[in-house]
Amino acid sequence: MIPRFAAIEPEAHLECGSPGEVAEALAYAQRSGLPVAVRSGGHDFAGRSATEGVVIDVTPLRGVSHVDGIATVGAGTRLGDLYDALDPYTIPAGCGPTVGIAGLALGGGLGILGRAHGLTCDALVGAQVVLADGSVVECDESNEPELFWALRGAGNGSLGVVTRLRFKTLLAPEILAFNLHRPPNEVADLIETWQAWAPDAPDGAAVSLIVDETGAHVFGTTTDALDLPWSVRPRRAPFRATKQLLAERDGPEVDTWSRSEFFARSLPRETIEELLEMREGELDFTPWGGAYNRVASDATAFPHRDARFLLKQTAEAPGGWLDRSWELVHPFGTGGVYPNFPDPGLADPDGAYFGANRDRVAAAREAYDPEGVFQPLP
Hints:
Elements: H1 3-6, E1 12-15, H2 19-32, E2 36-39, E3 54-57, E4 64-67, E5 70-74, H3 79-86, E6 89-90, H4 101-106, H5 114-117, E7 124-130, E8 136-139, H6 145-154, E9 161-168, E10 170-171, E11 175-182, H7 187-197, E12 205-212, E13 215-222, E14 235-237, H8 239-247, E15 257-263, H9 269-278, E16 282-287, E17 309-315, H10 321-329, H11 349-354, H12 358-368
Parallel strand pairs: 1-3, 2-3
Antiparallel strand pairs: 4-5, 5-9, 6-10, 7-8, 7-9, 11-13, 11-14, 12-13, 12-16, 15-17, 16-17
């Protein structure tokens, strides 16, 4: 749990180990007139998994089974446990071992296999959901297809409580991984090179760039040997070992604030230089392209299928540099924001998260949660 939200005391924290218990928790909250927050991992950057009302906590739902290429996963399962249970198979997802699979998948889900195999939500083939009225529905492309459509990108606690998910799996590949560091005086050149290369790299390559007070760090993985624009020697390792190595970069959870946006074109050199000159926090560039972009923008609620990269700015305090930095690059962005990086500072949240899909998302909310029991993205 992010520290500033961990201090929020709910009226009731209800751990639910079955859809029936979730339904009872929802009924209690509505009888009591209390707001509801759904928790599966607790890492929500906008604090939507915390409330002074009723926390419906599905972390007891942690079972994983794998039959005929389909993984059936309890909504309380964390990524580390999921990878261990599926090995030598996997799904495209992130690296943080304590991240909840439900929140990750329902907001999109990026990771080192994403450019080759798509978002985590693109691997989702079905879900079990407890709706606000307590009814339990199974949804997929044939059953409750509109709910299934909306869950994939707009399902983070705003349509119902997901209790079980089904994913198509793939054989986990061996991974070539590398990292390099460049000092501050070389960062502008590195960003220009990265922007020109990483979004167009072969699908198996996922090469991110982070800028902090020490300079720039390039973290890359690829499923095949390829020509890199930098002199670096990748190290080959099994998929699970690589995931564990990348997870070691994450320290203890601390209070930070972030803003982000997708970009369909490169930042010009003068903007890069101004961004670096004013930098007070961290810049995190994630490549898009590949399989992320080979899904139609209206095939799921997640619409960001034409971007080249995602830029997230992170600071130790809200406002100030964070807003100035975002405002500097915003004219070059698509206006789209990754739902798993929720931003309370947005003037038009639904437009930023769902783009041209916003009306269809709103219609799904009205159909499946007409009383507004669940919280939409801020």
